[in-house]
Design a protein that fits this description.
CATH architecture of chain A: Beta Barrel
Largest sheet of chain A: 8 strands, antiparallel, barrel
Oligomer: homodimer
Distance between the termini of chain A: 31 Å
Shape of chain A: globular
Structural class of chain A: alpha+beta
CATH superfamily of chain A: Hypothetical Protein Pfu-838710-001
Largest interface: A-B, 24 and 24 residues
Number of strands of chain A: 8
Strand content of chain A: over 45%
Radius of gyration of chain A: 16 Å
Strand order of the largest sheet of chain A: 1-5-4-3-2-6-7-8
CATH class of chain A: Mainly Beta
Number of domains of chain A: 1
């Protein structure tokens, strides 16, 4: 399954959210997501542009593989997602196989929906506010950028939160 | 969690099962289990004596890591077990990470229980019949061997089904 997604930095989550609701969107839920990224035992994921991520959302845990980005303007990637029944056992298996923890990334995420768009408004302490918009299925990046413009959002951030956190800490060149 | 387990070859599943029921054991269920073992992208699990296994039992899927055996007489290992929600996505993640499929192993498994013993009576086509007895918790291999003797079962098979299948096919030296 391809995940077609754009991300952009925003100044104010309430302002963007108000605009989405005006356009007929609906608020769905707010969650705290904790992600731990891992590096591969013999591939440098920072170079191959892949990722393995363990995510906790309330009492649910997901293990996700993300392949390299397939274009330069969006964050579209091949993605395989697995719901698992234990954070601790997932961690133990990854460690036993030689995967190493890179860094935890914690965010507050508000989910909204408007027509075919899944919208996420994210706040990360020390990093600021972001919007992510996702479409499943057909590959139509233009529709995503048109939608962002309608919201008054400019630009596109193709770096992952992990990369942004590492850059801010001076750990990524 | 340590898994303390012995395995032995038996001539007849019905005869051993009758003896277990005589001793007060109870039959719990019969299932078909399909296991696919994987090798690590840069470690030879046949040498390190580890295993990663994807198991399907009816509509459930489990991803399991097994560490090296920690004694020579039983099959005791460190084991981490994860219930996952998709066989296909598990396969895709393992392949994307560079794990390679070794071989599927299919068996008919009858579960019985007697006091602290979890008993499995396995039939594998082309390989024959086996009993596995497991205890969770305290490390008491003697209790396991005493119990096997009570059932009239001799000997211990420390090789995995995967190893036995590969040996039979002449793929393991």
């Amino acid at each position: 399954m391809l995940e077609i997604e754009v991300k952009a930095r925003i100044d104010s989550i309430p302002a963007v959210e108000a605009r989405i609701l005006e356009l007929g969107g609906e608020f769905r839920k707010e969650v705290i997501e904790v992600d731990v990224y891992y590096n591969h035992p013999n591939r440098d994921f920072a170079e191959t542009d892949e990722a393995i991520r363990l995510r906790r959302v309330e009492d649910m845990v997901f293990l996700t593989y993300k392949g390299p980005k397939i274009d330069r303007h969006t964050k579209t990637r091949e993605e395989f997602n697995l719901k698992v029944d234990s954070w601790d056992n997932s961690t133990s298996i990854l460690r036993a196989l030689g995967f190493t923890e890179v860094m935890p990334v914690k965010k507050r995420r508000r989910y909204l929906r408007l027509e075919e768009f899944e919208i996420m408004l994210d706040y990360l302490e020390g990093l600021g506010s972001f919007i992510e918009v996702e479409m499943k299925g057909d590959y139509k990046p233009d529709a995503l950028f048109d939608f962002l413009r309608e919201l008054g959002v400019e630009g596109s951030e193709t770096r992952s939160y992990l990369e942004l956190v590492l850059e801010k800490q001076g750990k990524l060149k």
